[in-house]
Amino acid sequence: MSNRAKAEVREIGLAGLRQISEAAAAVSDQAVEGASGRLIGVGAISAFESAAAELSRTKEREADERQKAANVAFQTVWKAAEPLFSDGSETPAACPVCLTPITETNAGSAEGVRHSSLGIDHLHNSYCAEVAF
Length: 133
Prior knowledge:
This protein is mainly α and about 130 residues long.
């Protein structure tokens, strides 16, 4: 009986070590890449790092696309409101988009809005040049 108990302990110990070894390999295993012969990670850590890097790239692309969409939306709204602020037209008392009194906006007056509109084209041209670069 004693010999049998000792044999079971040895077998369970080896099985436990095998299980730990397999779990460690699943987490941090590496493989040789085809023609280059370099080691690449194929375990869970490598998969996590790849997923985290892809998430980061995706978030950057999403932020860029959101910025583009916001610029397009603003340009559309501005083109619709621009005639209200042109020289010679009666200036509205409030912003036609958000209804904030013109005197309480950052521009402060219709003249300020007209002056700001000159900067919009400059900012748009700068943005296009930056994207092209």
